[in-house]
Amino acid sequence: MTNREFFIEILKEEAPKFRSIIEALPEDKHGHKVHDRSREAGNLAAQLGIQWKAISGIVTSGTPQFNPHDMENQSKTDMLAALDEGMPQLLKDMESVSDEEWENGDAGWGGAPTDKKYHMAWMFLFDAIHHRGQLSTYLRAMDAIVPAIYGPSADSQK
After folding, report:
1. Residue 113's pLDDT is what?
2. Domains of the chain, earliest start first
3. Under 8 Å CB-to-CB from 157, ≥6 apart: which residues?
4. Is 58 left (phi over 0), alpha (psi -120 to 50) or beta?
5. The model's pTM
6. Which of these, 19, 47, 53, 84, is most buried using a 10 Å CB contact count?
7. How far apart are CA 89 and CA 60, in angstroms?
8. How far apart are CA 14 and CA 100, in angstroms?
9. Strand, coil or helix: what is 107?
10. Rounded average pLDDT per 10-residue block, the chain, 158 residues
């Protein structure tokens, strides 16, 4: 299995986990923060909805397609729609890129190559996983139900 094929398999495994964490966010708690310097729960969830568009940009053009304003004032329906549109497109983009381009294609911010496509894409995926974990702790603090991610949560065993 190539690195690109492994990335595709991981995306397929992780997609429903991202969906479940967004679905668990109470619609009336998007502004919840666990600390003054923390991000709002709705902002984190919105990022989980659009992160896939950013990775598609890395794969197709070497530049993440990411607009931070796309994370503002999103309903849960908007977040899920972005995920449901972005993830299949990313999988399509991943299927269309060659292993050679994945491994050796340049990627970067602001037009200057700073990395390889595969490395930047993995970093963005790990970032999304990090923020998913962060949001799961917010859910607990909001008394919301924390879904199972890598096994049962205390809530999913009830």
Report:
1. 67
2. 3-141 (1.20.120.450)
3. none
4. alpha
5. 0.93
6. 47
7. 11
8. 24
9. strand
10. 98 97 96 94 96 96 88 93 97 97 89 85 97 95 92 80
